[in-house]
Design brief:
By secondary structure, the chain is mainly α. Helix content is about 80%, strand content about 0%.
Amino acid sequence: MSQLSGTNDTITAAIEKYSDMVRRICFLYLKNDADVEDVFQEVFLKFFQNFDTFESEEHQKAWLCRVAFNKCKDLHKSFWRKNVVGIEDRELPYELPEQSEVTKAVLELPPDQKELIYLHYYEGRPIPEIAEIMQKNQNTVYSLLRRAKTRLKKKVSELE
């Protein structure tokens, strides 16, 4: 019984600590509350199945990021997603118009650039760690970051 209690504590702690991060990643891709919640549940179900394999908290966090990105990509590739048209376009839930415009610009980036911007600017991760998470060469990550920044600057200047 005590092992089950320890398992529940570990999983509960991870959900409390990383739920906002996973939801933000999902929203970057999906922009739909229902899909975000579905993928969120899948990510933490997979976490439950693998919770005892992590070397450290950083490994756990990086793993959750990678699984969230992959689950979102899987949903985008699904038959349902490709063949069903959504009923409504939702406005992004931000208080300041400037925030909303920048967020929209980030959401319009290609997936790999969107991931990179999220990990670097929202999560504060260094490039070597991002390269490991994204399974790319560090120089490739630097190039992607430069391209993403250029696109964002262009987009924001168009808005002004």
